[in-house]
Amino acid sequence: MAFVGSLDQGTSSTRFMIFDQNGKVVGQHQLEHRQILPQAGWVEHDAAEIWERTQEVISGALKQANLLGSDLRAIGITNQRETTVAWDATTGAPLHNAIVWQDVRTADYLESLNENSRATISFKTGLTIAPYFSGSKMNWLVKNSPVVAAAIASGAARFGTVDSWLLWNLSGGVQGGVHFTDVTNASRTLLMNLETLDWDQELLDILEIPRAVLPEIKSSSEVYAQTNPHGPFGAAVPIAGILGDQQAAMVGQVCFDRGESKTTYGTGNFALLNTGTEIVRSKNGLLTTVCYKFGDQPARYALEGSVAVTGSAIQWLRDQLGIITHAADTEALASSVTDTAGVYFVPAFSGLFAPYWRNDARGVIVGLTRAATKAHLARAALEAICYQTRDVMDAMVADSGVPMTEMRVDGGITANSLCMQMQADIMGIDITRPLITETTALGAAYAAGLAVGLWSDIDELRKQWQQSRRWNSTSTPENRASGYSQWKKAIERTLNWA
């Protein structure tokens, strides 16, 4: 039996999963890392800690599977997108904490850009002008960190998203690590031209980013390097797949055809619609992005709707409010009541993403009465996940003109059956979950396996997809319309906050 590994570096944790040729998980290990919050709206990670966790989870998964690194045909990398790392190529040390995709410190800077610059960036990249993306984070590092500026001046600075940081370390680091990224991650920086699939000099000039610090852009499925034999694998294993986490989930859900879509529920919520080789520019607040590019084949594009806070709203109930002990407790608590007692919760902790794109929006809880309990708030948090998803999917239908009859879902929250039933009821469509719900890691494994011939083509991958569970809508059109109307009123409160 052949095996492939997948390094899944997410917003809250890092894990390594090992799959066999049938897509079955044979070993995995996962560890959380710190969330660093220097001030309101700022979110950082310690990139050195992430690299330490990476080495630990690789060793842990290999041990659990009773395998050696040399038993793996290849490994793939998937990562939290937009999170930006700057490091010194001569020492291997990060030059600053990684600035996380949720961070909004660059909002004022982006607002200061003139209309011509803003229009140029949006057209060339398919993205909205928001602090979500990597380019303004890189600009902040250049302008605000003397250490970074000095490293740029000396030629030692390297910038990248988390995939580049991990690839550089896994392939040798200061002993010859390669500095690459893939098209999916590059398409999230505000710096890559969607048509040329390369860094665009006009965009680099606008955001004042020196091209020399950036990685070379590669496809999502090719052999980039071998792992350092002295590293956690103890062998030279081909690193052969890189995909941003949401694109990896598209591959894991085998959404290879135009018109196929998936929604991933994680720290945030992300829906993608495959638009084939066509670049479709949204008129309804969505993003245009690269879906994947396998080797020399043409790039596939996607429309994407991003929600900043979904799973992290459950973490907030646990960590800040203390009304649950574990995230999994939410389902039982929310199930103890039959409705939210009129409570609506909009968790706009760092603004609203698609389709509103309002950095100044802030979270609200509306409709409170003396009768409201922690159970009602827990249920409202689950409803918020579902309503935010409907906002995005309605925009996607408007852009594509294709009615949605079902939605493929994956990610941690899909284990919450109540939430998935709510999703079906709020949208009025079927929700289907695959047998392997951790499709992000699986997608990176697929990309790596395709590059080394472990799987012959995407048709072989399609045959592996199996449904685990389906939720059918039980709501009436009247109930859906009424609940959604109240949700929109709550959204208005967040938008009026500023």
TrEMBL record:
It catalyses: glycerol + ATP = sn-glycerol 3-phosphate + ADP + H(+). Keywords: ATP-binding, Glycerol metabolism, Kinase, Nucleotide-binding, Transferase. GO terms for biological process: glycerol catabolic process; glycerol-3-phosphate metabolic process. One of its GO terms (cellular component) is cytosol. GO terms for molecular function: ATP binding; glycerol kinase activity. InterPro entries: ATPase_NBD, Carb_kinase_FGGY, Carb_kinase_FGGY_CS, FGGY_C, FGGY_N, Glycerol_kin. Transmembrane segments: none annotated. It is an enzyme of class 2 (transferase). Pathway: Polyol metabolism; glycerol degradation via glycerol kinase pathway; sn-glycerol 3-phosphate from glycerol: step 1/1. Residues 263-451 form the Carbohydrate kinase FGGY C-terminal domain. This is glycerol kinase. It comes from freshwater metagenome.
